[in-house]
Structure prediction request, 307 residues.
Amino acid sequence: MAMTLADVQSAAARIKPLIHRTPVMKSRLFNEAAGIECFFKCENLQRGGAFKIRGAANFLLSIPPPDRSRGVVAFSSGNHAQAVAIAARELGVRAKIAMPTDAPKAKLEATKAYGAEVVFYDRLKDDRESVARKLADETGSMLVPPFDHEWIIAGQGTAALELLEEVPDLDALIICVGGGGLLAGSCIAARGVRPEIRIFGAEPVQANDTYLSLKAGHRVEIPPPDTIADGLRPTKPGAITFPIVQENVEDILLVSEDEIRQTVAFVQSRMKILVEPSGAVPAAVALTHKLPGGIHKAGIIVSGGNV
Prediction:
């Protein structure tokens, strides 16, 4: 399926009742440190504390009501889990979530609080998608993937669409990449409204599957990564997201664990924005001057704030 700006615009209209339109913020101190002007799309202030509600809401709202009534199943370390739980609660749908035993406690407790049933798996031993598919088969529920589906991608792209509606003359976007749903959706939205914009993915050095995949020209799988950025731990780019990223992204820029930690602290202390490590990765790219030359005005999606 060839996705277009119209898909993202349709998703934006569809999910409007279920999401917040998050603010875009600036910081003089951050700009001075980064050497460029940065605009932060604060999805840490989104429902569930992350951008994931956009894709989850679009997915559930796109399911025909008779199928939706059978319930949904998802697999996630936290933010997608919370998003599916929130959307399911809003629509009166039963939700069951497969989560790793080492999922961040805050994300686990929030997912349960939103009314979803949690089933645990071992990240190092179990294939999370297989666990979730088994749950879906047992219950007749619909599986809601975290990133590799057109409905998810279109929903996630609405964050970049809103950012560019507010700041239309950006030179570049910097987007964190785990499975690639947010990055792919942002590519579709951004290319549709500003074809000349430069787009960069941002990954931890220790979770660099998309970086390696772009260099290799095909999807590369890595071992389960050991990174503080728990939302960026998928071991392989999506089959649907990767070709979109491959076609539209100029480069994947890498940051170290120390650079991620330092950026979380900088943004917290100087901007008073609570950002989780995954959400700090794009800001770390700007703060540590990893962008190529010629960029003066960059948009950064702060993907979440669930620490």
